[in-house]
Write a structure and sequence with these properties.
The protein has 243 residues and is α+β, with helices and mostly antiparallel strands. It has 9 helices and 12 strands. Strand 2 and strand 3 form a beta hairpin. The longest helix has 22 residues.
Length: 243
């Protein structure tokens, strides 16, 4: 399906790097569970069902069809980010649109001749596993995530912000052309509340999220650019005042 929305959400590297390596794996597990709950209970039925693919420490979440409004995508991302934030775990993400295709048909004939089972190939005594899907729905949000400034932020192309709806605040990052950050901390929407409740995700008050982010910035060995992004793009009061 062409131009479905796609969301790539991953564990923030700097935030996870402030703790033991084992905590990163725990955070990935928590994000996996949250994405599963959102798909299984929050958006279970046609035409709202989701498709989720793990990519390292992150997950691609995609709609089945093109949606004129991107509010649902932003609310799903916010619900997941807030759920992990309630446990002191920080994520970052990017929203885009594109296509997903079955990668197996496009793989080289040499690989297909060694097919063991779906997306698994024989290396004689070893095995090679490949991603089942590929396409612009994966490439575009990954590209945004890799080039965007550091921090627990949710990014989107400026050209798509008009489709988010009136409930969603976005801010442009200084020196970053064409990108905007969605204020997931302060986002308020009946759809967000409905999705979080249906999926059984934690949904803390804004004031507690602000305090957790401020405390994390104060006590953790983070780059100044990470803290500056939180203060300016998420408008955390204590960080804004001290800037």
């Amino acid at each position: 399906m062409s131009n479905r929305w796609s969301l790539f959400l991953s564990i923030d590297a700097y935030g996870a790097g402030c703790g033991p390596e084992s905590e990163l794996l725990v955070s990935v597990d928590h994000l996996m569970q949250a994405a599963f709950r959102m798909g299984r209970y929050g958006c279970p039925k046609h035409p709202h069902q989701l498709f989720v693919l793990q990519c390292g420490d992150g997950f691609l979440i995609a709609s089945e069809f093109h949606e004129t409004s991107l509010e649902r995508c932003a609310c799903i991302a916010t619900a997941l980010m807030r759920h992990l934030a309630a446990e002191g775990r920080w994520t970052r993400g990017a929203i885009s649109e594109g296509e997903l295709v079955d990668q197996q048909e496009a793989e080289p004939p040499e690989l297909r001749a060694s097919l063991v089972e779906d997306h698994t190939y024989s290396l004689h005594m070893g095995l090679m596993n490949t991603s089942p899907v590929m396409g612009t729905a994966l490439i575009r949000p990954l590209s945004i995530d890799r080039t965007a400034p550091p921090g627990p932020l949710l990014w989107i192309r400026q050209s798509r912000t008009s489709r988010l709806g009136p409930n969603i605040t976005v801010r442009s990052a200084e020196g970053v052309a064409g990108l905007a950050a969605i204020d997931w901390v302060h986002l308020q929407s009946p759809l967000l509340d409905k999705l979080s409740l249906a999926a059984g995700l934690q949904h803390e008050p804004v004031e507690r999220l602000e305090q957790k982010l401020a405390d994390f910035c104060r006590i953790s060995p983070l780059p100044k650019s990470w803290i500056d992004s939180v203060g300016s793009l998420l408008r955390i009061p204590s960080l804004t005042q001290s800037a």
